[in-house]
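User: Sequence in, structure out. Go.
Assistant: Echoing your sequence, followed by the structure tokens.
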Amino acid sequence: MPKALPSNPRRALLIKLGHIGDVLVTTPVVTALKERWPDLAVDLVVNPGTEAMVAHNPQINQVLTLKRNHAGPLAAAAWHLGFLSRLRGANYDLSLELAEGDRGAFLSWASGARLRVGFRPKTPRMRGRAFHVLAPRWDDEHHMVEAFLGQVRALGLEPGDTALKLEPGPRGRAEAARLLGQAGLEPGGYVVVHPTSRWMFKTWTPEGNAALLDHLAELGHRVVLTSGPDAKEREMVARIKALAAPGAVALDLSGQLDLDSLGGLIANARLFVGVDSAPMHMAAALGVPVLTIFGPSGEQMWGPWQVPSEVVVGDCREHPCGRAGCQDSKVSRCLVELPAGRVIEATDRLLQRTG
């Protein structure tokens, strides 16, 4: 099997089986490949529920979703055989597996791509044999974008434009415009505050968020609140609103937006405020200034990428611990004890810097 980089590859397969933000953060890899080969057709395999991050990206030929739920074992086997046959029949010249999972390695190998790239395993493992080229594994000192672009560099390419790319699509933009119009909000005339995450141990306190909302309102900013649809996230937003001053929230859209509409909303915001979660990466991809709060996870690896930002980190000598709360308790003391004043000061700095 040839192991040299094809001189003029026609089709490439990218595999990123991760969460919503993980998929978005891989988009600079697509840009780098298209910079080198403008006519390259790039297909991307993702998990269900993450497609919106790349569905409207004009650089991507097609998005393939790896189905997880099936009627039974026979249905699962039939679907996967069909999916593997589809990959094999595409005759890929190049494959990049942008995670470190056995499933992704198997899909890359099964595709039969002429040249397959993956990350060097932390310890010797069979999965490394699925690839012809192994790129350096990530570390906690560099952003994950750099880790993903390491696979591009392992091919001898040097990326130019390394920004994240997100397009909410016509429907997402139109729905956001409709909701904003109903509330009398103009483009650039509001701040999006997304205080929650599907992992609640990443979130700040309701009291701190309420103090920040009051401060933004005092400065004359109109706040739009958003969150995911999960009951815990919506309950937290309700607690924040109850603690904030009357009128501090101009529009509450918590739990009401799909990812396309959320992207359309963030795209025209004056500022985005949130925690380490996918919407923070969406704001960065849309060029919106970001104020973000980090607790257990590392801002060096996952902070806002190439956008004006302020990152507030909870005080803890073990940061980043990477745990699901202190001792995996689902409660992060570094965030519970984070004073509102630090976040408010960072917000003021960012607003002043970005006009």
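User: And one key feature?
Assistant: The chain has 13 helices and twelve strands.
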